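Trying the structure run again after the queue cleared.
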Amino acid sequence: MRYLPLAEVDRQAMLRAIGAKSIDDLFVDVPEAARLGRKIEGLADHASEMSVERQLGSLARQNMVAGDVPFFLGCGAYRHHIPASVDHLIQRGEFLTSYTPYQPEIAQGTLQVLFEFQTQVARLYGCDVANASMYDGSTACWEAIVMARRITKRTKAILSDGLHPHYVSVAETMARFTGDTLEVASPRLVAETDTDRLLAQIDGETSCVVVQYPDILGRISDLSAIADKAHADGALLIAVVTEPVALGAIRSPGEMGADIVVGEGQSIGVGLNFGGPYVGLFACKEKFVRQMPGRLCGETVDAEGKRGFVLTLSTREQHIRREKATSNICTNSGLCALAFSIHMTLLGEKGLRQLAELNHAKAVAAADRLVQVPGVELVNESFFNEFTLRLSTEARPIVRSLADRGLLGGVSLGRLYPSVDALQNGLVVAVTETVTHEDIEALAAALQEELA
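Done. C-alpha cells:
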C-alpha cells in the first residue's frame, strides 16, 4: 500500500498545468532564511502507510508522557482529570452532524450544546452573554481588543505586565496590520501586580485595559478599581482567564466590572495533546453583543411550535457582508466547546467549586513544602493553583535537568522572557488535582539536589 499517492509523472503533469518548472517554484515568495534547506532527518521520501505508522510511533515514544511523571507545568495549559464519559459522549450521533451548523434541521444536537455552552461560559465569567467559542485564548484576547476599538473609536490598548507573553505576541503581530497602539511591559518578580501602573496610564485616549486574572505569575488582584478608572475615562476593561477552574474559587471578572471577558477553556474537558487543540472563551455585557465576534446560538420554535436552536447572530459571515464583518474568524472550536460543555455539565456548580477547592489546597501544600528547600523563595502573596518561585540560580537549566530526571518541574520565566534578565530565576509551578503528595516530595527533593 502506497502512503504517498502521487508518482513523479503525476507531479510533473500538475506542474505543467499551473505553469511551474519545479516544486521549488511554488515557494519563491518564502525568504531563504525561512527555508529549511535540507530534508528532514529520519523521514523517508517514500514509504508504505504501515512503515510510516511504525516510524512515527517510534518517534512518539521518545516523548515524555505527562501522566507517567510528576507534572507541574501550567502557564496557560493545564493538566486536569477528564472523566472517560466526556470522550464517550462527544462521539454520540447527536453531535456527529455538520461541523458548521448552517442547516439547523440536521444540526440540532450541535446547536443545542453550543447554546448550553454559551450559558455556562456567561455564568462562569459573570457576564450577560457569551459566544459559541473562538479558536483559542490568545486570539480571543486580540478579538476583544479589536472589539473595544469598534466600541470606543479609540486605538490605544494598555496591556498588564501580567498578561501571558504569548497573548501579547499575538496582539502585537495583529496590531502591526491594524494600526492599534499597544502599551506593554514585562512583569517583575514581586508579589504586587501592576494595578498602580495601569491606573496611572489610563486616559481619555485609552480604548481598553487588558488584565490577566490570575496573571502569568499566578497573582490575583481585585479588578474593581481598574474597571472604575477605565469607565470614568470612557475605556473598557478586558479580563483574560487562562485557567477557568479558578473561577470556582474566586470572584468572576464580570462581578468586578469587566466589560469583556475572554480566555482559554482547555483545562475543562480538553486534555493536553502536545500543544493543542484549544478553545477560546468569549463573553461580554449585553449592550455590546452586536460587536461581539464569532457566532451565537439561540433558542426558537419551528413551524410546528417545537423548541429548536439556530444561529441567531453570525456577524462573522464575511461572505455575506464582508465589509461590515466584526471579525475575520471563520469558524469556532466546536468539538472542544462540546467537550468543555459536557465536562462542565458533569461537574455542575458544586463539582466545579469542589474541584477548585482541591486545586487550591494542593497548591498551598506544594508551596509550603517547596519554600522549605534552601534557595527557593515564594513570590506570591495570593494564588489559586499556580505560583511563582524565585530560585537562587537561573531556572531554565534547572527545569531541563529536572526533565532529564523524569520530572516536569514547572515553566521557567527565562523561557517565556528570554531577554529579561530580572526574570531568569523565576519558576512558575502549577499544581492541579492530578498532583500527588509523592509528586510534591519528588519535586522538593530534586530541587534541593539541583540547588545544593
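The chain is about 35% helix and 15% strand. Worth checking whether this holds up in the mutant runs.
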